Amino acid sequence: MDLVEVSPNDSPPVCRIMDYGKFKYIQRKRKKKPHGREHVLKEVRLRPKTDDHDRLIKMNRAKSFLDSGHKVQFTMLFRGREHAHRDRAIVAFNEIIDSFGDTVRIERAARMDGRRLTMILAPLKH
Q1: Rounded distance between C-alpha atoms, residue 91 and residue 42, angstroms
Q2: What is the pTM of this model?
Q3: Tens digit of pLDDT for each residue in 12-60?
Q4: What CA–CA distance (Å, rounded) separates 89 from 23?
Q5: pLDDT for 99-124, tens place per residue?
Q6: How many CB atoms neighbour CB 3 within 10 A?
Q7: Sheet holding 71-77: strands in order across?
Q8: What domains are there in the chain, each with its CATH number?
């Protein structure tokens, strides 16, 4: 154990008995730890049959994610015969991009991955 002067500028100076090696180790760990991860990927899931109002609610949620500085992955899930209507999904994704306008950049354009169509949007740096 060591006698460590914690705050020398106070009157009277404050000292503490502690393991100085452990104290330095914890300080290094805190310094390395990222304060608020900047690029967290959030996901918004949609279906081809999702109604316009429901899509609007999900877009508002995605807007709050983007305003917080997170990336948003839009995922359109297909089941059964919905695979035949991929064109509707592409139109829906284009409407989403148009609604956000110049506030976002397309990090990954819409592409099929098995039964799902995914697209990633990222906020623009101001």
Answers
A1: 22
A2: 0.67
A3: 889 999 999 998 898 888 888 666 555 678 999 999 888 889 999 999 9
A4: 55
A5: 998 889 999 999 998 899 999 999 98
A6: 9
A7: 41-46, 71-77, 116-123, 104-113
A8: 2-32 (no CATH), 41-123 (3.30.110.10)
